[in-house]
Amino acid sequence: MNDLIFAENRFGLGPRSGQSPGRSDGRGWAEAQVGQRLAGLPGIPTRADAAAALLAYREERQNARQGQAAMQPAAMPTGGTMTITPAAEAKAPRPHELQMARREQRELYLRLVDARIGAALTTEQPFLERLAHFWANHFAVGATKATTIGYAGLLEMEAIRPHLTGRFADMLMAVERHPAMLLYLDQAQSVGPNSVAGQRAGQRGRDVGLNENLAREILELHTLGVRTGYAQADVTEFARALTGWTIAGLGRGRAIDGAEGDFTFAAMLHEPGSRTILGKRYGEGGEEQGRAVLMDLAVHPATARHVATKLARHFAADDPPPAMVTRLEQAFLKSGGDLPTVYRALLASPEAWDAASPKFRNPWEWSVASLRALGVERSPGQRAVGMLQELGMPVWRPTSPAGFDDVAASWAAPDALMRRVEAAQRMAGAVSGLDARVVAPRVLGARLTPATATAISRAESPATGLALMLVSPEFLRR
């Protein structure tokens, strides 16, 4: 099947109800986007905004702790001692200034979510938008910590979208140097044990040291994949190579030169010496040592296999078709990780166009497709954020660096479907002037079954008809 409506659902974000049917060449529609660059989003916060908000929050938190410490002696009972437990501390009222600082960070997060949803609803490049969402989940960071809530969305905006139709190596480098990733995986706190800073800290009895989180996740999640031949020694050596990659004004790099909140290399944190990783020796070279390792990982055969498998799973089937994986893997290897070449191989794969093997939409995909089908062109703001939270997929807030699952079993449980029914009723009830009998053929095309068409035609109200369409088996899949 190669019609436009099928392509809009499988490779895009779902048809918009107000669109004209247009041409029927779905593959041509998708391929035309591969040669483009994804348009930037206007008016979004900057990393300078995120850094300022994080520093303000840290300052207010420090003030609050000092205030609590100052109050503690007066609260001690006479003739005994009183211990403030973590639970009691958590219940202590937070100063207004601290709450305001936290709110400012959350506002940055909400503005970025709003921009992402707005782009998804109105984009003229739905295939590229979907790919941006795919890579953001591949390089997942969570807006789940005070250090990352203002930064998480910026990783997608600054490191992924500009490199979407370039080389995988460039995207990888931009991601691993981005403040969001360095904060999320604690790289900004890593110190080489034998570095200048490490030795000074040891002499003062301070507990600082090597952090392996970023190195481990790069190998396991971002490039090679799990169980692909690397050992713990490779992780540790890679972590040593990455020491010195930090953020000016934050983390261990607070006193290091550079634009506040930007990536910087701090030589005083870097572990001296050469490194041997995956059997290859990397000479001493400061920042270049980590870069050289990353560049080799970016074109490693295991990376090609890992990326090909995830793309095939996302666009074709939960169990990736082996022939398709091999095709994408070869495209990656022969092109040196040129992403448009890989995307064209994906679009040329017959497995990706198999209508008999639909993918179950995850909550983000289903919510965006629903709003587009209902003709919504502006982000519903906080309502959309709340809905995605209820559906189990809050934007940029996965529970682990592995990102959100990409298989039906994670999203199709009965209670999850019940929440979609409730959300569909709310969305359908908020629009007017739409007739599901007209909209359904436009957004589902040949996949609209007689059973769903009949159910819609017998709905007791226009809103009920639209809700039935949104939770129909055809619409729940793409």
TrEMBL record:
Pfam annotation, one family: DUF1800
Region Disordered: start-end pairs: 9-30
Domain of life: Bacteria
InterPro entries referenced in this protein's UniProt entry, alphabetically: DUF1800
Protein name listed in UniProt: DUF1800 family protein
